Fold this sequence. Notes:
The protein is α/β, with parallel strands linked by helices. 45% of the residues lie in helices and 12% in strands. The strands form two sheets. A four-stranded parallel β-sheet has the order 2-1-3-4, with helices on one face. A four-stranded parallel β-sheet has the order 6-5-7-8, with helices on both faces.
Amino acid sequence: MRLFFILLTFCASAAQATPKVLTDIAPVQAIVADVMGDLATPDVLLPPFADAHDYALKPSDARRVANAELFIWVGPMLTPWLEKPLQALGSDTPPLVLSSHEDPHEWLDPDYAADWAVTIADRLAKDDPENAATYLANAEAAIARYGMLKTEILQMLDPVKDNALLWPHDGFRFFEAAFELNAVGAIADAHAHAPGPAHIAELVDIVANDEVFCILLDAEVGEDWLTPLGDLGDIKTAVIDPLGNDIAQGAGFYTQLIRDLGEAVSNCLAP
């Protein structure tokens, strides 16, 4: 009986050592979950279909930020509204910022996701040395999966990669570079700001002269932006989701996100 209580106390102590992690968006949560594995499940702050660029924290959200032992986020370039709440409400442990880019959508490239997995594993190993070996092993396994995923999507898109497309916004340039696509422009900038008259004129010229096969839209850049572009003729359109709002959280989220994007782009670019 005494041994049972010793083991119980040890298990409780180990469980307490695992940090309570909160992330900003679902793709980051998915990568953190891959690194944490069975040790714990990270939480995510933004609900599905929330605007990552402009979101108002509710009191319940503020409590979750305050209660988190480690906050992992893309960084202030994606969610500038989070910077002050993190300073005011965050724990004594500094948050982990994953991106220093002005165009902070690196998760759309599996190579960057692999880099993030390493960064996350290193930080968790530092904060929770008891489980360091598990975090690092999980990160290695995730990197292997992300590499196979990239190969799969490259093969999927290879037959149509030369066909011209327009992105909803510049944030998709990471997906474009990762999968060697022929993007001839984007409707909005990386923060989904509405295009001005000069940029609309450029887009009209691109649509008229560059034999665009496909115009892609998302939740922030919707069908209303097709009207200023004039007659689209036979140009196909499709809606893509860089945040995976309809994908169930948990194991396989990141793989499904990139695969869904690949399939949507492939179908839209097909002649």
